[in-house]
Structure formats: C-alpha cells, structure tokens
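worker-3 :: picked 3-isopropylmalate dehydratase
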Amino acid sequence: MPAPTSAPRTLYDKVFDDHVVYSGEGDTLLYIDRHLVHEVTSPQAFEGLRNAGRKVRRPDCTLVTVDHNIPTVSRKNFKSVSTFIGETDSRAQVVALEDNVKEFGLTYFGMDDKRQGIVHIIGPEQGFTLPGTTVCCGDSHTSTHGAFGALAFGIGTSEVEHILATQTLPQAKSKNMRINVEGKLPEGVGSKDVVLHIIGVIGTAGGTGCVIEFAGSTIRELSMEARMSICNMSIEGGARAGMIAPDEITFEYLKGRPLSPREGEEWDSAVAYWKTLKTDPGAKYDIEVEIKAEDIIPTLTWGTSPQDVVPINGVVPNPADFPESKRGNVIRSLEYMGLTAGTPMEKIKIDKAFFGSCTNGRIEDMRSAARVIIASEKNGGPSKVAEGVYAMIVPGSGLVKQQAEAEGLDVIFKKAGFDWREAGCSMCLGMNPDQLKPGERCASTSNRNFEGRQGAGGRTHLMSPAMVAAAALTGYFTDIRKIMGTRGNEDGGLKITSYFDYLTPVEVPAVPEAPTEETPEGKTPVKATAAASAGLPKFNVLRGIAAPMWEANIDTDKIIPKQFLKTLLRTGLGSALFWPIRYDVKTGEELPDFVLNKEPWKHSSILVCTGANFGCGSSREHAPWALNDFGIRCILAPSFGDIFKTNCFKNGMLPLELPQADLDALYEDASAGLELAIDLENQVVVRPNGKDPIPFTVDAFRRHCLINGLDDIGLTLEHRENIEQFEEKRTSVWPWLDGVGYAKKGQKVVAVPLKKNVKKTDW
Ligand SMILES: CC(C)[C@H](C(=O)O)[C@@H](O)C(=O)O
Ligand code: SF4
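worker-3 :: tokens ->
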C-alpha cells in the first residue's frame, strides 16, 4: 500500500490511512475490519436495520456475545436464557440478542458456549483482534484491543447500526498523543498501577480528542495481558483509543489462535505487514507525556473519578489542598465515599472485593491473585478472606475459567474463601444481580469508580488484582509489598512452576452466595413510547429555558445509570435522566433541590454546564436519549467526552463547546431562569434582555447535517462503490481479514460448540 504522504507517520496515522474508503467533505469514511457486538448497545441498532430492510454487510467480520446482563452463578443447570435469567429486563435484552443473531446470521457465543465472555476478552482470545485492524464495539472499553496495534474505539448504538449496515464509519482524525513510560517498574508495581498513575497525571480529560500511543521501555517489557489492561483504561484518560506497536510478544500471543492468520505463507505475510506498524522516526505528536517507571508505587483510587488516585502509603486528600475550581467536586466525592481527609489509606476497611472485568479478568490476573494468597500464607499472613468480607472472582471468559481450573487456581481461591463465578461483566457495573449495597465499600479490579457504578450508593476503589487480593485477605487496603516481601513484582520469591504444588487435599469450605436480591435502586418507571429512531429532527433555532450545572466530569453513568440500559427502546428515558443525583437512592423520591426537579428548569431544553468533560466514560447512547427524551437538545460545556459528543450529533442534538467566560455568563442567565436561543444557522447564542449574543462555530459538515436532519447511513451508502473497491483491495492486500475462520464471506454462520483441544479453523 503506498502511503498517501511521505512525511513520517505515527502508528495511528498508518492504521488510519490504511482504512480510508473515501475522503471528502466532512469526515473521512473508514473501513471497520472487526465489529464486536453485545446485548446492551445493539437492540435498537438491529431494530433500525429491520425497519430499513437492511442486512448485516459483513457477518464474517462480526462477532457477538452476551456479557453485561448475565448472572454469574453456576451454569450447571443452564438450559436456556428464558429459564436461567430471572430478572425480566435482562432476560428480554439477551433474548432479543439471540433472536437478532439468528435473524441476521451472526456468529454468537451464547451462555452455553465456553467461548462466551466479556467482549473485550474474547476478541483477543480468539485472534479476532489483529494488529493493524480497525476494531469497533458499542462499548467504551473497545480501546483494550489497541494493545495489538489495532485502532480500536467505542461507539454508540447509532454507529453500531451504521457499521452493521455498511461496515464503515465516518471518522474525523484525532490528535496524536504519546505517553512514554521508561525504566524498570519497582517491586509490587504492575500494569494497573501504571495506568492509574498515568490517569492521575493526565486527568480524565487529558486524552480528549486524542489517540494515545503508549511507548517506552516499560511498555515494551509488558505481556499482552498487561498491555491490554493499560489500553483498556485509555478511555478513563478521555482518549478515543490507546495503541501499542505490535512486536514479537504480540505475534507470539496470536500464533495459533482460532482466527489468527493460518501458519505458513499467510502468517508470514501478516507478520511482515505487522512489522511495519510502528511510528516512523521523526513523526510528530501533538502531545507528549513522559512517565518514569521508578516514580510509580502501588496505587488505588480514593474518590469517584478514575483520576482520584493516591499511593497506597498515602492518605485521603484534603479539599483545601485543591484549587478552588476543583474543591466542590472533591468535597462531594469525599462525602459520597464516606471518607475523612487525612485518613491513611491502609486504615480503610472494605466490605467486598471484586476480581474481574475487561481490565483485569484475564488469566494473568487470576494468577496474580493466587500468588498473593500463597505468599500471604507462606509469609505468616492471613490465608483466608477476612471475616465479614465477601470476595468474588469472575473470570473474563469461559476459556479463562477453563484455563484457571486447569492450573488449579480455582481450588486455591475456594480454599481461601473466595467465590469462584462464571464469566461476565458482573459487579464491574452490576447490570446483573452482582451489586454493592448502599454504603458498601469495595476493592475492585475494574475501571470505573463513578457514583453508584457497582450499585446505588456503593463505594468503589480501583486497584490492581494483587492489591484486591491483599485487601480481601486483610480486610483493609494493604500495601502489596508488605505481603509479597520485596519480590511482589514476580512471585514473592515462590518460584512457582505449578499451582498444583500448593494444593493440599483440603475440604473446600462453602462460600456464602453473593446477595441476589435487588438493591433498592428505586427504579423510576420509564414510559415506553416508540421503538427505533424515526429519522432526525432538524435543528435550526432552539429557544428555551436553560438548566445551570457546575460539576466537572459528569459521566454517562450519572446521566443514566446501568439499571436503565436494559431497555430495547430509544425513548422513554427522560424520567430517569440524572437518576443518581435527581432522586433519593434509597426511596426513589425526587430530590427537591436538584435543578431539573424545580420550576422553571423542569421545562429546560438547554443545559449549561460550567464544569469540563461532560459525558465522559461509558459509550451508552442512552445518555443523549435520556436528555432528548427529557426535552434537552443542546448542551453547552467547556468540553465533552468524545463518544458522548458523537452520540449527540447522531441524535440531532447539539453539544456545544464554549470558552469558560462565556459559559460563566450563560450560567448566570440560566440560574435566573431566563430563556436562551441557540441559533445554529447564524452560530450565535442569543441572550436575554438584549445582552450581547455569544458567537460559536460548529464543524461545517456537522452543522449542515443537523440543520437538514440528514441520516448518516443514507449518506454513507451513496459511497457504495468506494466500499466495494476497498473490500476488493482488502482481500488482495490483507487476505487474512476476510473472516476465513467463521465462514466464507456472505455465508450464514452458526456458532459451533467448543470441541476439546480446539485448534484454529475449528469453527
Ligand atoms: C454498556 C456499555 C455501553 C458501557 C460502556 O460503554 O462502557 C459498559 O460496558 C460500561 O462499562 O459502562
Ligand atoms: S467496563 Fe465492565 S461493564 Fe464495561 S465492558 Fe468492561 S467489564 Fe463490562
């Protein structure tokens, strides 16, 4: 492939350039090689296809599984989803997925398939994720796959529909950011500490608008599992994607995977191409960050944002030590977390420990937890989960579980009193019954510590698998170095060759079942009106009451929490908008002081937020759907989460970035209950009482689409010929991408149950 330019290019530039189908007015159309689909963000997309009479363009490049809603109790008695999943809305969402994969002929790893698991664990595990590919999924942690040198990013449901129909996506080019981590990691420090430390340094908006390349000697030394944990949390740093240049460690990981290129000529030409996927000397980055590995010590979070990090030997921070603009957020976080400034982190007691998630649900994470248990016992520390603590281990996939059991890890866990569960997202976000109760504190290997993330009123602290294991054993946050001696980074001096060496035949005590009753999330009834999108309304001049908000980093979990993601509709979510801050978590009653519960803001059609990074976090399009359903069609803020911003445009809504001073002025108008008018045609915000209007600019193509209510899929299909030409080129240049592992292009594919000793092409 000739490069479109001879200037030195970054890894991101190269992968982007290799996928351009069409470049014209507005965004570039990118070909998407790999599409992963799960039950939460797809029902409305399939419904859209059905309504438009469209097919899935590339079933051979689409892989579907269930992960968010499913219970993680034993599947010994599993017969069907309809009889196994107790909670009605979760069941409906999984049943809808099963119907959709049948109707559209897609490969599906269901609950009776060992290969089922969290979407970001199974992609790499199968060799579906490959270097140099573009990978998308209706899920923000798609960034995980960037560990392979893929350009992988999360999308909303409208974009899921777009890819299903066209196998392409309109994309603007992001900025290039490099985070260089150099040196040897100190003892006890692993990849999770590295990424938490990085987010602490750059902040949750540090990577907004960027694709981050993680580079440097520290990153090059890491295993694929560790690299995945780092790229996974790029989204917590606000980035569109994270990438790591593929190398021998990558190739070794991929060799022999079911969907990797076949050994021989195909493998050799794939590796030859993959070796070109590194940044050219002299390529320019828009932002560069240097991190010294030696500065990192075992890290955990204290607050309700992933950037709220503290070293394990530190103390709960004091709001007075933060700049005034941040103090309000810190005070609110400490109150929510039930923490007092100055308390040493090691003096904080936990109620629950959660292992799993797409960040740390892989085999290496399981081994790391087992090593801590063994080392603790050997070094005279506790050998059992602390009294009063419930600790659960949820493997990221059925294959991770199988591997862990083959290594004897499950017995080590059970013997120590951990609950060994089935694969799924589980308590990472608690769409299933695995949840925290209000006030419970959890040491968690997951990636988000937002308010209510693991259960309404629950308190989440993020940390490495080793640190979670240590906390489960001692009952307090614990410096892993104290348990592992000075060799925490390796295996605590144990020289483990087989975990079976540590298995003495013992009676495995029964673990108390995880609470299955629903936590009192006081689900507000949502009104269901229509199913799929009915085309975009036009946006010309929007006049109305504006609601003032001041908080920074309002994440999409706060805009619409997990219990409302089980809908099969795009509408009816307005009554649940801002649920965690609009209603009392215990009673479900409206909080009278919340702005949208008061007159005149109950009738707002505009939101003015003076805090930055509005809509960060999860890719759930339910966030703009909820705002829209409430009646809000324009949000003004200093900056937005990337995926949220795109999702707004896809729904005919305007996310408008304005300078802080303008927002402060508009905040005053909004607080006075006065009307504003957003005139998109003339690009001005018209203020009340004849005050000077505030000018703004919106990308010309986006503006044109909003004003004319244009449907993106229709626009893309005008480039059908370009897509076909690209596919022909793809088949000749990168033949291994044509889904040979599943079925021939265009054929109906059926998931095949796993056979023993599964080898590649056993599909
Ligand atoms: C359900 C999905 C939209 C969401 C995401 O995008 O991240 C989920 O996986 C999460 O972690 O909050
Ligand atoms: S972050 Fe949690 S809920 Fe989201 S995909 Fe990963 S494991 Fe699932």
